[in-house]
């Protein structure tokens, strides 16, 4: 993944690495640590990760906009709201709401209400 080859790794680095070797007091200490991933590949992976985070963020915004379930803090939950995740009565409306939400989130709507 990097420019280092097996024929290069026996050569000490011109500068000691900051992870371990720079802290060595022995002036004759030689550093042979090489990065596993070169900066170009690391930057590509970082860019891919940022793109992926944006895709997830967009999906989560869509889900948040379409979702009818709202999580209430325990104090707020005392006001029994039908679309609160805290209200887990096994009534038909709640079960239907739960099924719709599971499908929206890409989760399986199969199982016991308590587990879902």
Short descriptors:
116 residues, mainly alpha, 2 helices
Q: Can you describe this structure in just a few lines?
A:
The chain contains 2 helices and no strands. It is an all-alpha fold.
What does the model show?
With 116 residues, this protein is mainly α. The chain has three domains: 35 residues, no CATH class; 30 residues; 49 residues, no CATH class. The chain contains two helices and no strands. The longest helix is centred in the middle third of the chain and has 28 residues.
Structure annotation, total helices:
2
Q: Tell me about the largest β-sheet.
A: none
Q: What's the quaternary structure here?
A: single chain
How far apart are the first and last residues' alpha carbons, in Å?
Answer: 43 Å
What secondary-structure arrangement, pairings included, does this model have?
Elements: H1 39-66, H2 92-104
